[in-house]
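From the shared-data thread, chain only:
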Amino acid sequence: MVGNPAPDFALEDLSGRTVRLSSLRGRPVLLNFWATWCPPCLKELPELAGFHRRFQGRWEVVGVDVGEPRERVEAFVRRAGFGWTFLLDSSSRVAEAYLVVGLPTTYFIDAAGVVRARHLGPLTAEQLEYYRRVTEAAAPPKARTTAPFAAPPFAQAAAPAAAAAGTPGGPRP
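Structure, as tokens:
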């Protein structure tokens, strides 16, 4: 799926309005599949909230709740005070189309609608920044919102260890 156009879909938001993914083109999209019962999902929500605050107006953050009733999701989001778009995938058909096998799963889609990265599991602030830069660097120059990609500290720290171990990209005997 990475490197290909994101599968389009239409789902209802918490107010009952239908939102189509393709209507968000023109801005990059962080598409996060999650559920209120999922501890790793709950762990990453503060990081997603920080990302939303930092890039509001430049990125669309979309949470897709998988398989839960509207009332449960609505009460959770209202209580937590999250301000990004939440959609309801009560039948899990969109999660299936996106090959979601575990929660949370997050896709990073550029402004042209192309999937640039997929992440399984909870995201840290450093990982969000890394994927943001990858997504923006891959976008056509007109669609970029900030400077191009530079490897984050967590990726840079892995390079010397890989080189010493002789792993891909490192020295070979």
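Confidence is low (pLDDT under 50) at residues 146-173.
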